[in-house]
Amino acid sequence: MGYNDKLIAGFAALAITIHLLESALPSPIPGIKPGLANLVTLYVLIRHGWSLAANVTLIRVIAASLLLGSFLSPTFAMSLAGAIASLTVLGIAWHCPGKPFGPVGLSILAAMAHISAQVVTAYLLFIPHTSLFTLLPILLTAALISGTLGGILVSKILERVNSPINT
Amino acid sequence: MIRSGITSLFTTADKILFIFSFVAIISSYSYFWQSTPANYAIVKSSQQDPLLINLDEAKVHQIKGSLGISTLEVKDGKIRFTTSPCRNKICIQSGWHNHGGDVTACLPNLISVQLSSKQSKANYDAIIF
Amino acid sequence: MNSSILLKFQFILLASLFTLSACSKPAPVFHETVFTMGTLVEVTIVGADAKIAEEAYSAILDDFNYMHNTWHPWKPNALKRINSLLQTGAPFPIAPSIMPLIKKSQILSEQSQGLFNPAIGQLIKLWGFHQDNLDEIIEPPEGEDIQAFLKNLPKMSDVKFKGISMFGTNENIQLDFGAFAKGAAVDATIEHLKEFGIKNAIINAGGDLRAIGNKNGQPWRIGIRNPRADGIFAAIEISGDESVFTSGDYERYFESDGKRYHHIIDPRTGYPANKSRSVTVIHSNAATADAASTALFIAGPEKWHAIAKVMGIKYVMLIASNGDVHMNPAMAKRIKFTIKQPTIKLSNPL
Fold it and tell me: Domain containing B23: what range?
């Protein structure tokens, strides 16, 4: 088991745990969750690069769905679509020349991509009616808030990890 | 110390992105939402034919979904889920709905409720025959 | 300390909120339905001041009632007087209230090779369609009576104009504009709405529809009712200035001995046209759309294409009596089926 494999395994385990805890949380409006598991993706992206982050995220989505018993169900499809979309957007933003985005910007982009992909998936697979998109503004608002807060959180964690005391 | 911390968290691109997203989201509200009160709801399910519900008539409707029966309650021109066999009960927590063009759903049970402000016309501006 | 940056953000948020709420007021929608022209007329006006919409609506109601009374095919009115004068063959002063209708239908009748023929009012009357309640009709007319009428078939060209006079050249002539009058009325009232400065509106006279502008930047969505079952079977989006009209064998009909007789009479045979179930046409002008849909309905699956070409119709869907769906490629691009998509027989481009 290489160093990267160990990292992937460790972070995936952390992400799965957060994912499971989060799915137990009640949510006031359909589809709105803090998205804490995505913070692991963001952290791994910044510390270890995109491909590691992609590995961790996809393992998390599949493993968590197996544990929750939702593998290949509508919930899984939504989860996977969200993950793929946010990874794609993160990949593009991360490789932008000059790396203009910090953790907060990346987190916002990921959250927006995540929720938009989920709404589109729900539309294509389950509710083929355009009025589904009336939920989009609320969901995007929630994504902006949770994305911003999540980004701040990750920045703080990175600050701690990078501070001289820990190294 | 704290101040420099917070400021350093947002890069210039982050700030632009935040403002841009905020403006885009606010305008998406007016784009996606028309808030005329609904008087009809169309209930679609994977397990039964679409059902047209009159919101002026207080009544409890049983809808068969892919997991089982969900119950819809209609009262005072509003509609809500009261029971559902789904795990998260998100549909029930979303509460009452009464805006035309609004939609609520129980995703796990594959039931959608679409509110409309015009009788039997759903999303057409006119119907010809 | 960190409150200053938060304050800054809050200020920007509030500022953008106010700016946006100022410019995103939803456009007012005026919607009224009224029974006139022998049908349910539905008027939708979007984005106009409520007072202007109200004023325009009452003005076009007057228009509708006037045209309904003047053009009604069997009630005592101007049309009835003109019909009896035309039958005498003697010249009489041109009737301005009906003149535009005659002129326009002469051109359209000619283009349709006589399939659209508003001169056959007597034949329509013979079939019993000159009454509101079709349940009273017991049986179709005698074949001999129909043949006798066809021997001297009146045409729109039998109405002649000379100076300030007009006269008929066929004693069988009796003008019955049918749905064409509805189309002409829709055209006239849409023009009247435009004069009120209204830019976005739909007038739907019992399925005889013309729309101008759009709905808050979105095209109007028009549903087409299923001719053989309840519900909508297709949708068309229209914008700018367009009319959609469907002629169907299910609109007016009576049944006798288990057989169904509908109101679209083929002037060549004297019997209800039997090659089509319905024809849907999109055209900028409602009256033209009406005349064309009637003519193409009678023409049927083999001949519709040739006649549509002459009449300048660019979008046609014809459902044949065997259920086949025929359309030209441009129409196929615009029509969206809400039911399982039927097999479509595409024609050459129009």
Answer: 2-32
